[in-house]
């Protein structure tokens, strides 16, 4: 999306009219007109999600199906991830890579038995679909789902609110999903999200989205939440934002996403390699000393917000990295950031400096998440 884009260039989600009715401030995002915040403001929306339940419109995301008996093996050929062994209605995080091991996109996928259901980032969805189709050829059918909306309900009271509309959702645990029905509309719901809280992502027909959203907003726990708070919530949870913290210039190992690559796909595993960039990624996993940089979490030691793309320096004023995401954490009331640094500065408790308007702000390397996650694992 360029700054020159006009509102007429932007696509709308099925909830566009509802956002306007709720007084949202709309901004261009991933080619769509999206709500960045509502009248209560970013801080209140963020804190409401942490204590109750927030409703997010994420219909700009890409939804697609892979169908056919070879679908799992076909998708696995594009990612350093175990797709073949994923259980029925289980969800997993995945990474599409290029031939240099760079990250084309991160995504979520579910084994639904008859198909694989994928959710990809909104700004990448057309390129992702093209990449997947070209990468797997005729091994399976690729079916985009542009007619479906996607909502996220997040927060410690999300299950209580959603279960009044769909009682069966309480049986789901983190990273599982299932088919549900609401007033004759076919829904697919996963217990997952992008905030670090318990919550759900709900795929549903676009024509049912506004009525379903209003039914959720009628629950006393639920408030509408915009993109601004979605970003601050995911950063507190230590989750990467594609285009900021990961992109084609970063490998999964540099991005500290080793956990997303199961043993079966690593060196010595039953299905070692066989994905784009495998030689580079497997070499980095085997020899971490070969890395030129690592992604880390940082907390500022002074109450001065540090934002991307601030430069990071060592005690001697030498450039050692840069911030990729940073803001004042509403939960901690302390500046937090994700950054890439040279490996010598990646150890926990290492002190470095962020340059903010020409002045050094002391920061310390810390483990992520910054705010403990509260996923429901049963």
UniProtKB/TrEMBL annotation:
Keyword field = Aminotransferase, Methyltransferase, Transferase
Q: Which Gene3D superfamilies match?
A: Aminomethyltransferase beta-barrel domains, Aminomethyltransferase fragment, Probable tRNA modification gtpase trme, domain 1
Q: Which InterPro entries match?
A: GcvT, GcvT/YgfZ/DmdA, GcvT/YgfZ_C, GcvT_C, GCVT_N, TrmE/GcvT-like
The UniProt entry's GO biological process terms, in alphabetical order, are: glycine catabolic process; methylation
GCVT N-terminal domain segment(s) = 16-263
In terms of domain of life, where is this protein from?
Bacteria
The protein's matches in Pfam families, at most eight in alphabetical order, are given as: GCV_T, GCV_T_C
Q: Which GO terms describe its molecular function?
A: aminomethyltransferase activity; methyltransferase activity; transaminase activity
- UniProt: substrate binding residues: 201
Entry GO CC: glycine cleavage complex
Q: What class of enzyme is it?
A: transferase
The reaction(s) catalysed by this protein are: N(6)-[(R)-S(8)-aminomethyldihydrolipoyl]-L-lysyl-[protein] + (6S)-5,6,7,8-tetrahydrofolate = N(6)-[(R)-dihydrolipoyl]-L-lysyl-[protein] + (6R)-5,10-methylene-5,6,7,8-tetrahydrofolate + NH4(+)
Q: Known EC number(s)?
A: 2.1.2.10
Task: Tell me where in this chain the Aminomethyltransferase C-terminal domain is found.
Answer: 293-371
What PANTHER family is this protein classified in? AMINOMETHYLTRANSFERASE, AMINOMETHYLTRANSFERASE, MITOCHONDRIAL
Q: Which family does it belong to?
A: Belongs to the GcvT family.
Q: What's the protein called, per UniProt?
A: aminomethyltransferase
